[in-house]
Amino acid sequence: IFRSGIIVVAATMVLALSSTSARHVGLDVLAATVIGVSSAPVAAAENNDTAIRPFRVNVPKADLADLRRRLAATRWPDKETVADESQGAQLAKLQELVRYWGTDYDWRKAETKLNAFPQFKTRIDGVDIHFIHVRSPHPNALPLIITHGWPGSVFEQIKLIGPLTDPTKYGGRAEDAFDVVIPSLPGFGFSERPTQAGWGLERIGSAWAILMKRLGYTHYVAQGGDWGAGVVAAMGRQAPVGLLGIHTNFPAVITAEVGAALGGD
Q: Which residue ranges in the chain fall short of pLDDT 50?
């Protein structure tokens, strides 16, 4: 479907760049999820529900202090009775993680990392959706929407922005360039928490199609992993006008029989 083998380049970049320090990415993900959803103020939507509003992360100092207090007050279980991980996560490792999170982790540094990219919010189907949107400096760049998984956040994808939007700086070609859109799933990061049930894969997929249309894109591709893989699969089934194709790094096939047993459609 794609010209000049662009989808191959995209898949290669996404998969090749997916590994990083598990400790720091995991903490960034936890920060965006725990702090973002529970503490960050959500700006009131303008009267025009289709408006796209600039957004910058700025978590109040009091919220960070409250999180550290709650971490320090953790009530720990008894130590496991074995010397390995056969009984699950080991107490000492959890305590070290929480200690680091509560005393050493620099959330302001994480904010700076996010705020280095253009961020926005827009209201779709009654929910404020947060997203990063970076246009390529190269003409005719192919629009690409990337969806994170669970538990995750846009932190996992920001390392892809440079290589995808400006591939010539990374040994690629100008014709391999993408305009990149990275939304936070509803209830994750700085997207608003839905107040009603029903925000499953199909509804999120429909929302992403609305988002891309709202950004002025008449054709685009979609990529996702983990829960995001389910979202892009839903988009493929829905086949909204303008969607040229999807890429997933977590493919799954459910037969009609298995789907019925699981209570699916």
A: 1-27, 29-31, 33-47
